[in-house]
């Protein structure tokens, strides 16, 4: 059973409704990733305190291919990743070039209207509203939003027009340790049991779309 990269989970949840409604041709993504994502063998306190590390080994190479795999898309993805002195909660700023014309208001409406697919609605670990749209000018923030729905919801905000060649931009916050990791594993296991039962094996490729909240196997 496969789960996406913890950053990809939040990105996929925010991008999936937009991809389905308008298509996405290209994305530029800048991440600000919490130190907990480095694990026990990660950066020492002195290396990250009051600092920003402009790169994480192997991370930029993963994000584009994994995002496309989860969405079943062919998006041209440019990524810059950073490790920042935040304990929990990855932030990403996303700039999208859409396949079909849409305003920031259109994108906001699509994100606000997103509901989990039928297969995911009864799963115990998943919230009724896995996407939270923030309208405040300074949200989402890891400190305030990473724990939304006990860490299982992804928060999106600052949805606005973007200069060419992009069409729309927004910020995303997801709890890397919950929605991006342990929670994704639990959601995948719950869906596996719901679909196949306890003893029946499922597909070998796993269920990355459900881990990300998109519902696509």
Please specify the SSE layout and strand pairing.
Blueprint: H1 6-22, E1 24-33, H2 45-48, H3 59-71, E2 76-83, E3 90-98, H4 104-112, H5 118-121, E4 131-133, H6 142-145, E5 154-161, E6 168-174, H7 178-196, H8 208-212
Parallel strand pairs: 1-2, 4-5
Antiparallel strand pairs: 1-3, 3-6, 5-6
Helix pairs in contact: 1-3, 1-7
What is the helical fraction, as a range of percent? Answer: 25-40%
Strand content: 15-25%
- Shape, principal axes of CA atoms: globular
Weakly predicted, low-confidence segments: 204-209
CATH architecture: 2-Layer Sandwich
The number of distinct structural domains comes to 1
Order of helices and strands: HEHHEEHHEHEEHH
CATH class: Alpha Beta
Strand order of the largest sheet: 2-1-3-6-5-4
Mean pLDDT, all residues: 90
Q: How many DSSP E strands? A: 6
Q: By helix and strand content, what is the structural category? A: alpha/beta
Number of helices: 8
What Rg do the Cα atoms give? 17 Å
Question: Which topology does CATH recognise?
Answer: Dihydrodipicolinate Reductase, domain 2
**Could you name the CATH homologous superfamily?**
Dihydrodipicolinate Reductase, domain 2
How can the largest sheet be summarized?
6 strands, mixed
């Amino acid at each position: 059973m496969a789960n996406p990269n913890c950053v990809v989970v939040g990105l996929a949840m925010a991008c999936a409704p937009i991809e389905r409604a308008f298509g996405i041709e290209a994305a530029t993504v800048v991440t600000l990733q919490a130190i907990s994502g480095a694990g026990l063998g990660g950066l020492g306190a002195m290396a990250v305190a009051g600092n920003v590390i402009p790169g994480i080994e192997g991370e930029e190479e993963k994000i584009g291919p994994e995002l496309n795999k989860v969405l079943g898309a062919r998006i041209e993805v440019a990524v810059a990743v950073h490790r920042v002195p935040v304990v929990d909660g990855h932030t990403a700023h996303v700039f999208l070039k859409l396949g079909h014309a849409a305003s920031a208001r259109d994108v906001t409406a699509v994100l606000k209207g997103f509901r989990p697919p039928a297969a995911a609605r009864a799963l115990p670990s998943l919230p009724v509203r896995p996407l939270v749209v923030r309208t405040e000018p300074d949200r989402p923030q890891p400190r305030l939003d990473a724990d939304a729905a006990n860490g299982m919801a992804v928060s999106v905000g600052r949805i606005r027009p973007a200069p060419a060649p992009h069409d729309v931009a927004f910020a995303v916050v997801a709890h890397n340790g919950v929605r991006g990791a342990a929670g994704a594993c639990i959601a995948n296991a719950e869906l596996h049991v719901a679909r196949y039962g306890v003893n029946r094996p499922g597909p070998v490729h796993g269920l990355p779309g459900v881990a990300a909240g998109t519902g696509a196997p």
